[in-house]
Design goal:
By secondary structure, the chain is mainly β. Strands 1, 3, 5, 8 and 10 form a five-stranded antiparallel sheet that branches. Strands 2-4-9-6-7 form a five-stranded antiparallel sheet, with no helix packed on it. The protein is built from two helices and ten strands.
Amino acid sequence: LACASAACHASRLFARGAAQRSQEQPAEPAFVRPAVISASHNLTGYAPERAADGDASTYWLVPGGERMERMSHDKWLVLDLGRAAAPRALSLLGTASTVGGARVTLQRAASPRGPWRTVAHVRGLRGLRAPTRQPLPADLSPSRYFRLYMRREGHASFRHAIHDVCFECEEDAA
């Protein structure tokens, strides 16, 4: 699925500006919006699918508090690109109720059940001003399944919301 959201548009402008600054003119990347296929939490009104629905006003929410603390320290979304692709960057738009941005680990696997291998660490989810764009390793092999894994930080009131997820891929994966 192609991205059309503000987060993907901002990443597209960033990629275009980087290409204009370089001597070579690489092909413009394809922007792929993943499907959410599983998640650690699913609250009414804040379904995991909202993290990748292309609408920055909707989001997947995992609230803080003692009840959530007892349920799970870890939060995650499993994403499906639709077919194997070689992402070059991740755009992530979200918020976290911590002083610093929440730590997010991007992992990949050949199956939606894992085993998971870490691709990158993102210090994102600071605020909705702009998406966090995380370049990914150039030697990343094509993968279909990715997981955003967020570790609880701070006290029991830690909460986060993912408003948009988009991948920049080397070739069109739609």
